[in-house]
Every structure is written in C-alpha cells, then in structure tokens.
Amino acid sequence: MTEKTFKTFAWHQIPIFVCTPGHVKMVRELGFDLFDDIIDHSYDSYTEPSLYRMKVFSEIAKLIRANPTTEDWQNLRNKLWPRIVKNNERLIELKLSKTIGLWPHYG
To answer: How far is CA 5 from the centre of its chain?
Structure first.
C-alpha cells in the first residue's frame, strides 16, 4: 500500500483500485467503506493481470453507463457524501494513531 491508496480518501473520492490482488481486502480491513453497493470489487481476487485489468475496466464502464451525465455523477456524490466524509475521517484517525516507526500497512 502506498500514499496513492489513501489519497482516494483524503480527496473525497469513490475508490476503484488498479493494483495487486488482495489490495481491496486490505483497505477494507482498515475500516474504509468501499461502496460495495455501487462497485463490484470482485476484481480484487483475480491474479492473472490481463483478466484483472479487464474486470477493473468493465466495472468502470458499468459505472459510466449507470451515470452518463455530469448531473448523474453529482447526484451520486451527493447521495454518498456522508459515507465519503466518514472515509476521510477514518483516514484522519489512522494518521493520528500512527506511531513513530514503520506503519504495518505499508508494504
């Protein structure tokens, strides 16, 4: 895990990760809401790189089809805003609880 994982929550975004298999599971274990009711993160279990990428891009395409206009995206963001803020607050909690030394969640 790198800072790029956490920027999603710092910048109030809805996460879709393109990284190594198992990443979504680790982020979920940290207590973040990954919007499983909106995004199918089953791509996280695929180990073959081209299949993994295909599943990620398929999920992005599904989101775009479901939200074709800027207004649709704004409505989705407004609907999810309390959960997005909660993820940001969880990030702050993790930052404040970090002690000197290596944080075990960095790979």
So the answer is: 7
